[in-house]
Amino acid sequence: MVLKYQHPFAQIDLADGWGSMAGGRTQPHRGLDYQPGAGATIPAVAVGVVSANRWNAALGNVLVIAHPDGMYSGYSHLATASPHQVGAAIVRGEPVGVVGNTGSASSGAHLHLTITFTADGTWNNADIGVTTDPYRFINARLNGDDPVQPFKESDMPKIISVPGGTIALVSETFGTMYTSTSGVQGSSIAANTKAYGQVAGLTEDQVKTLVAEANARGQRIADLVAAAR
């Protein structure tokens, strides 16, 4: 499955795109600029989970979203810090911040969007090799698929029952599948539906996707905590 992406805005500055040296740059432009005007609400380019919400001297207020396909999108120069905390599940198109002009690298209100292979979400050690062209990357995935919508924190944890006996316990950062509700673990989990809440009607493949996404979120958070020590 190819993950579905969208451009956050239609107003793209292609004259100063990814890799550009325009404007007297001393290093290639690592992202793509969108200019919808100050105060415009920024939508997430794809489903994912917030992996960073921080201040950067050059980029100002920055939000980074980790996506299920292993990529990261970075939203820079936000007018104010994004309201989303690290670990929050985000759906494609969900507001993640407001266009601003923060950081020393900004000379006017715009969104600087980066798509990276690394968790930094912007760049590491001034290495352009960790970024990819957002314009080409997103255009190649406009017709992709959204995964099963991730549960919000308020919906977690949930028990998911699947036709045929499979049962799963999925939380915000952890997921486990059991092959049969007749098993000891399955029965004990199923007995706690009031504590956990319950979801039914999903296919086994959809449940596997949710379990994988939950575990990926948990691992990313654990990695962030470890790196901060």
TrEMBL record:
All copies of domain M23ase beta-sheet core, residue ranges: 28-116
UniProt-listed CDD domains: M23_peptidase (cd12797)
Pfam entry (one): Peptidase_M23
Record-linked SUPFAM superfamilies: Duplicated hybrid motif (SSF51261)
Source species, domain of life: Bacteria
Protein name per the record: Peptidase family M23
Organism of provenance: Plantibacter elymi
